C-alpha cells in the first residue's frame, strides 16, 4: 500500500486537532466535507497500518482486540457459510445481509470501542487495498472478518508474498 501524505502532512498540532474533531458527535457537523476527508484519511491510515502488519507478522499470531475469541466464535456461529476469502459487496450491503449483520454488530456496543465506526475492508483477502478491492464496513465487521481470516489462514498469502521478497 503506497503511503500518501495522510495525517502526517498535518503535523503534530494539525493531527491533534483532527483527532479532537473526529471525537465529536456527528450531529455537531452536519455534512462538512472537511470532516468526511478526515474520516477518509483516518480509514486509509488504519488500512495501511493493518496491511503492513499482516505483511510483516504471521497473521495467525495477531491479536486485534481483547475480545478476539468472542468476536470470532460469535461470528462463525452467525456467519458459518460466509466466504471470507473472497467477499462480495452483497455479503455486507444487501438488505438480507444488513438484517444478519445488525444484531451481530450491536452485541459489541460498549464492548468494542467505536464498534460502528467506518473502516476499509478488503474484498479479496489475497490482495492489497485498491479501489476495486475495498469496501466500507463497520469496525466490528472488519474485526470479525479479519480475525477469521487470520485464524483460518486466508491472510497467509499476503504474509508469504512479502516475506518471499525479503
From TrEMBL:
Domain of life: Eukaryota
InterPro entries found in the cross-reference section: PBDC1-like_dom_sf (IPR023139), PBDC1_metazoa/fungi (IPR008476), Polysacc_synth_dom (IPR021148)
Organism: Channa striata (Snakehead murrel)
Upper lineage: Eukaryota, Metazoa, Chordata, Craniata, Vertebrata
Pfam family, one: PBDC1
Descriptive protein name: Polysaccharide biosynthesis domain-containing protein
Positions of the Polysaccharide biosynthesis domain: 35-159
Gene Ontology CC, one term: cytoplasm
